[in-house]
Amino acid sequence: MIVLSVESSCDETSVAISKDGKHVLSNVVLSQISLHQAFGGVVPEIASREHVKGITVVFEQAIKEAQLHVDDIDLIAVTKGPGLIGSLLVGINAAKAFAFAHHIPLIGVHHIAGHIYANQVNDEMVFPLVALVVSGGHTELILMKDHYQFEKLGETQDDAVGEAYDKIARILHLGYPGGPVIDQMAQTGNPTYPMPSINPTGTYDFSYSGLKSHVINTVNTHKMKKEPIQTHNMAASFQQAAVKHLIEQSKKAVTDTGANMFIVAGGVAANQSLRRAVFETFKDIKVTVPAFTYCTDNAAMIGIAGYYQYQQSKKHDDLSLNGASRMDLSSI
Ligand code: KG4
Ligand code: ZN
């Protein structure tokens, strides 16, 4: 089955073609990051406008690179949420128009299901599995007992981990997005700044606002006293504490559920310390992290998730498909 997929939930315009939920034939990603950098974060109005400008070209490029004819496409999958509503609607409308014009069935896919299924490109899922979803908007532990069955075990009670990275990078004047640059600096720094430990609550939930505020307060106190901040060491200190919390909660979830596999999903899955820590922690079960290309937003992951969604439900969406800025993974 050949799936053409579309992702436009935030600041990447992407179209991909994949085969049988595994083989990526093309995955074109047009990133808007450089446009948003001047503002220190994604500006929704600019994001929607850029999606409109880029979507047709990205469609054409993805089909060309896959060396296929439109008649070869069996299914169109598009991110229906969660995300920026104006951005989502550009991808959804383009996917609907393409599906209608070429008489191809259409399905709407949950963005986080896409991040989770990015792991299926390099490895086969085995169940039960625990997925740690870590991105700019999400920090969640999901239990899957079979394909396309998502049970939320816990989630952040305040900031998402990626959001904490981005806010800390901002106060340290490291630019946007903050994750990659803090991660890189942390590799050559030492964790010399004391960080508060995040108290395990007995649940599988997360909390990043205390850690984020602690870093911001420390930086501000240094600024007031005109003392320099050792940025590499601050990055290493924050990253060590941030990853420790992710690992502790994940360990609890894996032990309690008796999971056979642990996977990481979302933009923060690119984090070098986190990638190392998961392989060191879960030695007795199967562990997979997505290839770097499939960590941040891309349409290939939506096509793979879409394939499995269709295999499980055998249901299409019609042209009334709509986007939603918030959408619970457990309810799909
Ligand atoms: O999944 P994604 O592309 O978009 C969302 O759905 O949110 O994730 C983007 C997030 C940003 O917060 C970015 O700072 C973070 O992922 N990120 C990282 C790294 N690369 C990207 N965070 C930590 N370490 C990284 N290497
Ligand atoms: Zn994402």
Q: Count the beta strands.
A: 10
Biggest beta-sheet profile: 5 strands, mixed
CATH superfamily of the largest domain: ATPase, nucleotide binding domain
- The strands making up the biggest β-sheet line up spatially as 3-2-1-4-5
CATH topology of the largest domain: Nucleotidyltransferase, domain 5
Can you give the helix content as a percent range? 40-55%
Mean model confidence by pLDDT: 96
Q: Which distinct ligands sit in these coordinates?
A: 5'-O-[(R)-(carboxyoxy)(hydroxy)phosphoryl]adenosine, zinc ion
Shape call: globular
Uncertain runs? none
Count the DSSP helices: 10
Structural class: alpha/beta
- Taken as a percent bin, the fraction of beta residues is 15-25%
- Terminal Cα separation, in Å? 22 Å
> What does the radius of gyration come to?
20 Å
- At CATH's second level, what is the architecture of the largest domain? 2-Layer Sandwich
Instruction: Give the helices and strands as they follow along the chain.
Output: EEEHHEHEHEEEHHHHEHEH
Number of domains: 2
CATH class of the largest domain: Alpha Beta
